[in-house]
UniProtKB/TrEMBL annotation:
CDD domains: Hint. GO terms for biological process: intein-mediated protein splicing. GO terms for molecular function: endonuclease activity; metal ion binding. The keyword Coiled coil does not apply. The keyword Zinc applies. This is DOD-type homing endonuclease domain-containing protein. Residues 286-420 form the DOD-type homing endonuclease domain. It holds the Pfam family LAGLIDADG_3. Keywords: Autocatalytic cleavage, Metal-binding, Protein splicing, Zinc. It comes from marine sediment metagenome. PANTHER family: DNA-DIRECTED RNA POLYMERASE SUBUNIT BETA' N-TERMINAL SECTION (PTHR48446).
């Protein structure tokens, strides 16, 4: 991993030197998220010294985000260079935040909450980096300047401890149950993924259509009207008023409805892709199933789920029909004789959206960032879809694997919202039954013991054989 340090630093850490590796005690899930964050009442609430590629989950501008801390800090510092405070110690730059940014945080008693980030820093990382790893499979790289929270049995509280003094067997706070934020995200807004300058949003289209009609049939609009209006009263991909008028007069616009999204170019069919996708259990199930066994093609304008179970196929069919998407089922046989059945739904808008929302290709997938602050019903649906599609149920455990580390981390993280702990691991395979070359590492999560029981109580799997 690359450390986070000033540009052109000649420090050994800047060249990737990692000093030590620690194995913690019985730490559960998601240590690195709040170890990267400020802890109000325990330390100053500045973001602490982790390497720049460390992922963190924050709540900023009313929306959840998963960001690399280095990129996020760089962006923040570049916006307000005149407000940065400079210190000689480790060549540190500090910026106090004026707006509200939340991050999962923990107090001395180990209670997790969403706390305010009050300041961020960028500085020389020091001479050494430390890789801290838990038995639960989580790890984070921190600088020697970073103080970790370590359980002190004498005072029965977590206490700041210098990283070089952390030892094998120490206990660190972890997110077993992640509380809700003050604001629950109810919808995924498609314009966060599909820009209005590249897609037609029905609500904006009809606002513009109504304003254009006020020209009383004139071909010419007032000078500068389109440039002054497009982007304020409405936002559309047309560059001139004449482009909008041409569409109104020459195209079939009867199916362009308020509240739905359409492609700017190409064939427009009468589908109902909403401008806001509700974070309910049904949509959570489809997204979870897509994460397990789905892919999309903008070129073909299709979204595909590969699954041989008739129950799953029917649920996918119903989901496509809800958006008036045409669909088809087909089966193929691979080179080792296995049969794979796929159901494809057709919508260029939906295909593009799914790729931008959760990635495409097994190693690129990740959960939607909205999941971190979504209602529990969406989380339950997503876990149902993912485990029904890609999970393995044994007598004592619920397990899933992926070549996407970010996906497994995300599934584990949102499970903690339901009070379900999972253990993560990584392994390498030399060969597989398909003869694949350059096999990627496999990341696994395992839910065991009382947490498996809790999972079965909260999540009713859609495949009866797995539920039983």
């Amino acid at each position: 991993s690359l450390p986070y340090f000033p540009e052109n630093s000649l420090d050994p850490a800047a060249r990737g030197f990692i000093s030590n590796s620690f194995l913690s005690g019985l730490s559960p899930a998601e240590m690195f998220f709040h170890q990267a964050g400020g802890r109000e009442g325990l330390t100053d609430t500045a973001i602490k010294s982790v390497t720049g590629d460390t992922p963190i989950v924050i709540f900023e501008n009313g929306k959840p985000k998963r960001v690399n801390i280095g990129d996020w800090i760089d962006k923040r510092l570049s916006i307000c260079p005149d407000k940065i405070e400079h210190y000689e110690d480790r060549d540190m730059e500090l910026l106090k935040l004026d707006d509200t940014v939340l991050i999962p945080t923990v107090d001395g008693g180990g209670h997790v909450s969403w706390g305010d980030i009050t300041a961020i820093t960028r500085h020389d990382p020091g001479k050494e980096l430390y890789r801290v790893k838990t038995l639960g499979g989580r790890e984070v790289i921190v600088t020697e300047a970073h103080s970790l929270l370590i359980w002190n049995p004498l005072i029965k509280k977590y206490q700041r401890t210098s990283t070089p003094n952390v030892k094998i067997g120490d206990y660190m706070p972890t997110t077993l149950v992640l509380p809700e934020t003050h604001t629950i995200t109810q919808y995924i807004e498609l314009n966060d993924y599909l820009p209005k300058r590249k897609f037609i949003y029905g609500s904006d289209f009809h606002i513009a259509k109504g304003m254009v009609s006020e020209f009383n049939g004139n071909n010419r609009s007032p000078s500068g009207w389109w440039n002054n209006t497009n982007g304020t009263d409405f936002t559309l991909p047309y560059t001139k008023t004449s482009g909008m008028i041409r569409v109104i007069r020459r195209s079939n616009i009867s199916f362009i409805k308020d509240g739905f999204v359409y492609p700017y170019k190409g064939q427009r069919i009468e589908t109902y892709i909403p401008e806001k996708l509700k974070l309910n259990q049904e949509n959570g199930f489809f997204i979870g199933l897509y994460l397990a066994e789905g892919d999309s093609s903008v070129k073909d304008g299709s979204v595909r789920i590969s699954n041989n179970d008739p129950t799953i196929q029917k649920l996918v069919q119903n989901w496509f029909e809800k958006f008036n998407m045409n669909w088809e089922i087909s089966s193929t046989t691979n080179k080792i004789g296995g049969t794979s059945t796929s159901i494809r739904g057709f919508s260029t808008v939906m295909a593009d959206f799914m790729i931008r929302l959760v990635g495409n290709g097994a190693h690129n997938k990740h959960i939607p960032v909205e999941s971190y602050t979504a209602p529990n019903e969406f989380i339950i649906g997503l876990l149902d879809g993912y485990i029904s599609g890609d999970g393995t149920i044994t007598r004592n455990a619920i397990e899933a694997t992926s070549c996407s580390k970010q996906l497994i981390e995300g599934i584990s993280f949102i499970s903690s919202k339901l009070g379900i702990f999972s253990k993560m691991s990584q392994r390498y395979m030399k060969t597989n039954n398909l003869g694949t070359k350059n096999i990627r590492p496999i990341y696994s999560m395992s839910i065991r013991a009382q947490w498996a029981t809790k999972f079965s109580e909260l999540v009713n799997l859609s495949i009866p054989e797995k539920q039983d």
